């Protein structure tokens, strides 16, 4: 097709993407290689990056991420934070980075608006000895839809992170939103993060996104503390048989082997975990002696050990 003497080639159904890109790049087209791509991303991202900032008064920042939504990041973040608080003298905080869908207010049963201290910083709300900050504390009604563009979300996150008085908090656990996009990169690149925990169900499509999350953390040099398999097994309360609802496979464990990162363990699919979260009394608090709490405690111990070792 000729338009104003400029030759334009139109991508048609019959033209596969590979030949389209070849026609654009000609023989100079480089073969795609994930190593080369990672290096390229690293180089681009290293240019003019803002310095990674600490959260004032906080020793360690840990991210809980997943790639896919609904796999149990927030549930895991909350219960791991409580498990770490139970077995150490550390003061723990949770920063809810899910600006569009904050879960921490309901899960931690916190609904007030934070006060502001004399320096203008917000005082985190606290329950079960965990200091929390969430966009959910700041919007007027929890059912108000937040319709913001990316830069506004990043501005809000920056405000929640650095505009909160975390002084006296040893570890801040960041409950990340789903995905591996700009917001995730921005958090990973602008905060002095010690490590990330990646949560996934065993389902193939969740694991595929978890692999992307691991790869993103690797590309920004954030160590992956380990992967948590959530909702791995369901034990029938009647017949006691075990079912792997999201796949009868070892997907999460095997990716940790393939990617050379630790496997932190499996949390079962347990209606009580969900009920406790919805009631604002997380399972680690509601059932401190349960097997589930012991599983969270073991994972919490691995995270504490990791933080001590870096
Ligand atoms: N192990 C579990 N057993 C039962 N329900 C769970 C479990 N983990 C999470 N849930 C439930 O699954 C839903 C999604 O969990 P959530 O933590 O909000 O995921 P995310 O933060 O990844 O979107 C919630 O309803 C939560 O209560
Ligand atoms: Mg969540």
Notes on the structure:
Mean pLDDT is about 85; it is low at about 1-30. The protein has one domain (about 60-310): P-loop containing nucleotide triphosphate hydrolases (Rossmann fold). The strands form three sheets. Strands 5-6-4-7-3-8-9-12 form an eight-stranded mixed sheet, sandwiched between helices. Strands 1-2 form a two-stranded antiparallel ribbon. It has a two-stranded antiparallel sheet with strand order 10-11. The chain is built from eleven helices and twelve strands. The protein has helices at about 15-25, 35-45, 75-85, 105, 150-160, 180-190, 205-220, 250-260, 270-280, 285, 290-310; strands at about 1-5, 5, 60-65, 90-95, 125, 130-135, 170-175, 195-200, 225-230, 235, 240-245, 265. Strand 10 (about 235) and strand 11 (about 240-245) form a beta hairpin. Helix content is about 40%, strand content about 15%. It is an alpha/beta fold and about 300 residues long. It binds adenosine-5'-diphosphate and magnesium ion. Adenosine-5'-diphosphate binds near residues 66 and 74.
Indicate the topology.
Blueprint: E1 2-3, E2 6-7, H1 17-25, H2 34-46, E3 60-65, H3 73-86, E4 92-96, H4 104-107, E5 125-127, E6 130-134, H5 150-162, E7 171-175, H6 182-190, E8 195-200, H7 204-219, E9 224-230, E10 234-235, E11 242-243, H8 251-259, E12 263-267, H9 271-278, H10 283-286, H11 291-309
Parallel strand pairs: 3-7, 3-8, 4-6, 4-7, 8-9, 9-12
Antiparallel strand pairs: 1-2, 5-6, 10-11
Helix pairs in contact: 3-11, 5-6, 7-8
This protein binds adenosine-5'-diphosphate and magnesium ion.
